[in-house]
Amino acid sequence: EEGNDSSCLLATVRTVSCILILLSLQAWRAEGLPLSSSSNEACKLYDAILTQYVKWRNDETLGGFEGCIAAIQAADPNFVMGHVISTGLELVATTSSTRLNERLASAVRQTVELANSQDISPRERLHVKAMELFSHGNFPKACDVWEDILVDHPTDMLALKFAHDAYFYMGAQTQMRDSVARVLPHWKPHLPLSSYLKGLYSFGLLETRFYDQAEKVAMEGLALAPDDAWSVHSVAHVYEMTAEMDKGLKFMESREKDWQVSDVLACHNYWHWALYFLEKVKDYNEFSQRCKATGCMLDTVDACSMLYRLEMEGVCVKDRWRELLQVTQPHTDDHVTLFNDIHFLMVALGAKESATSQHLLEGLQELAKEPGDNQQHQLAGTVGVPMCQAMIQYDQGNYGETVELLHPLRYRIVDIGGSDAQRDLFNQLLIHAALKSENKRHQKLGRCLLVERDAVRPNSSLTDRLLQKALALHV
Hints:
TPR-like_helical_dom_sf, repeat, Tetratricopeptide repeat protein 38, TTC38, TPR repeat
């Protein structure tokens, strides 16, 4: 059977080599990014995995992520960069913690040991170092190492993408933009995947409020690669942040067939589409089903967020919470990112699982006592824990306490990572709590926050509804 498995994997290698002109050992060297492997097939599979990562897509013509990862290990079991990309992708997915998952922790150690036993390039050695730092939760230093790589090797897409994702997890908006801006001049049109930098740069621009420029750059990317789901995603953000719902609806529908094939991101793009229809429960269905099917953490937190938003809008989603709890509860002890933890808490609270809610909070409090180099755990005590406590107070109807906990953090919430659109949920939570509080100053604060919101997002129907609620409650 082992022989048959090996034959299948090698068949995948040959298929991958034939379907696309993937970079060979010699081609990687010619691009100034040599790979320390004697296997031409392994180098092509590395390119296949990287291509799918950039496109957010399990490409079955290449064997998908799983097929390519299995095949690259068969083609060259000692290929350091093969281990870096395979283990690195599992780490950035945040679906598992090296604290709890010994297999994943062992994969990190094995990669380090392989690197130490071989004569590999300085660039590859830095990749191993960055991956190891990220596995320990030291996101800032991991990014520093990836940026070191990009200084000498600005066309190293893996370093650029890993850094982009890590900056996203830290809410490092300016860094996310500038990291791409620094390397853009080096990416000539003939380079594979060059057009996809448009989407990466666009996202950094929109997160730093350059909405017009972000839309322009994303559209340039889509003109070159219509299937660039990240550029679509960026435009969806622009229309959300500028409250241009009609444009957003038309755009997402007109390009659905293009971005739907990017299965890793499709559910998240449906989430953005659903935001335009927030008042309609039925629009939760499409990405709800996809969330269960993919198991992708991005899809899971989106489902949590949408239910929480719907509930704040007065929609009964009781049964939905119970369904989602089956997905989130096994991750209660992971504590990979604060962003994930806070979304898992939403589900525990919505499902009335008080024991799970308390367990999650206590676990976070314990890790905050001795965080070590883990950047997320360092933030837990000052940001993560009080945010969780605010949500618990809101769930218990203690709206004044919610405001007292959440309001001092409003300009630090960015540190938990995610996007402005995703973090807007906490702006809404603060406004709802302030309006419901019996404290007159909190009620005034709520109205002030709504005026502020209206100035940034004019013509937002959500803001209008909240303003009407404020007037009805406190004439």
